[in-house]
Structure formats: C-alpha cells, structure tokens
Amino acid sequence: MEAPRLEHTYLSNLLNQRVTSADGKILGKVQDLVIDADLPQPEVKMLVFRYGWDRKFFSVPWESVANIQEYGITLKSDAIPESPQLQPLPESHIHLKDFLLDKQIVDVHGAKVERVNDLQFFISDGRLFLLAVDVGLRGLLRRLGFEDAVLRFFLWFFDYNLKEKFIAWNYVQPLSDPDRLRLEVPQSKLADLHPADLADIIEDMDVHERAAFVESLDEEVVADVMEEMDPKVQVSIIRGLGPEKAADILEEMSPDEAADLIADLPQETADDIFEEMDDAYEEQVKDLLSHEEDEAGGLMTTQFLALPPDKTIVDALAHIRLHADEVDVIYYLYVVDAESRLLGVTNLRELLSYEIFTPLERIMTTRLITAKIDAEAEDLADLFAKYGFRAVPVVDDDNHIKGVIRFKTLLEILAPHLGK
C-alpha cells in the first residue's frame, strides 16, 4: 500500500532524509533544495543530495522526483546518470539551506529583521512550492526534533499552545548573501515601505549587512531612509561607503540633514566626500556648517520656494510643480525682491483661493514673523508655539532670506530634552 502523500512539509523534515531509487535502492541523503526565486511563488527546481561511496554532492532536476513521503524522497527510474555531478544554476536559483536557513531576512510586512528557523512548502501535483519562512520557536524546535515533546509540555504545564510564527514569502527580503541582493523580485518588495520602517530594518542589521543592503538601494531611497535614522547609524553607513557613493546619497538629502551628518564625520572623510559633491550643493552644506548646530543658521534648510512679487498665481503653481521634489518646505512660498530680500509670504491655501492671474504681491502677507541666523533653539520653539507655523524663514540683518526652519527639524533637536 502506497504511503500517503504530504500536502505540506518543511525543509527540516526533508534535510538528511533518504533519497531512494524507484526500485528501493538507497542513494544518499538530502542536503539542500534549490528554488527559482524569480517566480511569484518560488518553486523547487532541483534536489541536492550526497551520492555514492565517496559522498559527493549530486543534483537532479525536481522533475526526477517520483514522490515525497515522510521517510524520504523517491526518484524516478531514469533519474540517476552514470556519475554524480552538481548542475550549474541560473542566477535566479538559490540553495535554500545555504542561503536562507539560520540567516537573517527582512519582514517587509512587519518592518523588522528576523532569523529563519525553518521553511514551509506546499505540494501540488508533485511540485514543491516555497510558501513561508518560519521565524518562531516552533521552527527551531522542529529542526532539533523536540517540537512535539515541548508542545505537550507547554500544554500540560502552562496550559498554553505554543504558536507558530510564519512570514509569507511575498513579505520576505533575504539578506544573507550580498551578491544576491540584486535579485529584482525581493528588492521590489521594499519600494512600498515607509522610510521610517526601512530605517528600523537597517538599524537591526549588522555592519556588513547594512553596507551590502545600502549599496543595493537607489540613492534617493537611501537618502529618505537616512533622514529617519539614528545619527550614529548614519555615520556608520556613510563611513562604510566610498566617497562618490556617499556624495551621491548626501546630495539627495536635505542640505541641513546632510550638514548634520557631515559634522559628525572625521574631517578627512568629510573632505573626501566634498571633493565628489556638486559645487553648488557643497557650498550650501558648508554654509550651514559655518553656524552652530543649535542655532537657526545651523537648523535651517536652504531648499525652499521663492518668487518675485510680480509673478502670478499660475506662475507660482507651475513653479511649485517644477520644484516640488527638490525643496523641503512646500506649503509656504516666499516673495522676494531681486536681491533676495524677504517681502512677504503666501501659502498653498491662498494660492488655490484666488483667481489664477492674481499677482503674488496682492495676496502675500507682509506682517512677517522671522528668525535671525543666530537665534537659539529655545527661542525658535517659543516662536513656533506662539504662532503655530509649519516653518519660519531665517533672515540676516538686511532682511535677506537665508533659509527656512521646519518645525520637524526643531523638534528633532528639542525632543531629547522634553522629558527633563
């Protein structure tokens, strides 16, 4: 009587199980499975086992498998060639034991790093599909052979059923092999993560994984993520990159954020990065670095929207659309003369409330609340608290606008002291 076929199984159940021929001859033991990770639902494409008296590794296509049973895997009668061999793999194929088991992965749904204790498969018409990774205690116990005993103990002693903890494969981003980070399918899963979630994930990685992971991401994505990170982690990442790559990332950041980061770098490292940086951006960052970091000049961003007073609302809206990706403050539009003296301010609500050919000088507010370059953080906090602005312009003694302070930036400076 044929043994019942499994509907699902685990990698731990298959590793070291017997591989037998169609006539019942024991050929070896399972060493690994190979999947095609480019498929939406990764499928096992190859079986790897030790074969023969000299215990050489041997691989056969999964089509050579006749059936999977609890005691092992049986091959078809024509599956064994004359000599053992490991077949070359396409780039999208990965060895599960070597690449995933006991390795760290990113759970892009829970936005955290987990360690893989086991892998779950489902079986359909003789084909084996990777369903999920097991990151729970039960996965580890299963591999050690203690799962049933420990489950019974917990149920008897604590009246508690130890729960399984799976992460579906479509929420998994492998980390273990830097070369494999270029796989397009897993990388695409990160695109929908909020930068703050991605920052948490990267902070959970070790130094080597961080470097490989950051190298694999687009500079714009890294820049958004860096702005959400702990400053010590920022410095660690930038120091692990080459000056050119570091400069590319910093140029995608807000100048004030980039200045804060560079201020924490060794001078030699900062100089190397400046050499690779765009001249105009370098000038902005160095200007910010010339001010104390807890004063308005050190907190402001130099990326804001400004237009002359004779421009109309339709000009302003076109200007906003053109520069929206480049500026840090988009709600306010500052009205300036030819020498960048601040004349007034308007905002998106007002721009959308008037006839589109109305000049800015007719809708701008001229009773301005500004901050001086040397204004301290505590005074700036009073300003924001009193007027409820999202951002405040910074001017010099001649009323030239030099930058804009965002409430978010000020809060980051003051937050550590709020509980004191």
UniProtKB/TrEMBL annotation:
Domain CBS intervals: 300-362, 364-420
SMART domains assigned to the protein according to its UniProt record, in alphabetical order: CBS, MgtE_N
Keywords of the record: CBS domain
Record-linked Pfam families: CBS, MgtE_N, PRC
One GO cellular component term: membrane
Stretch forming the signal peptide: none
Family annotation (InterPro entries): CBS_dom, CBS_dom_sf, Mg_transptr_MgtE_intracell_dom, MgtE_N_sf, MgtE_transporter, PRC-brl_dom, PRC_barrel-like_sf
MF terms (GO), sorted A to Z: magnesium ion transmembrane transporter activity
UniProt keyword Methyltransferase, yes or no: no
Coiled coil residues, start to end: none
UniProt name for this protein: Mg/Co/Ni transporter MgtE with CBS domain
Organism (species): Desulfomonile tiedjei (strain ATCC 49306 / DSM 6799 / DCB-1)
Organism taxonomic ancestry: Bacteria, Pseudomonadati, Thermodesulfobacteriota, Desulfomonilia, Desulfomonilales
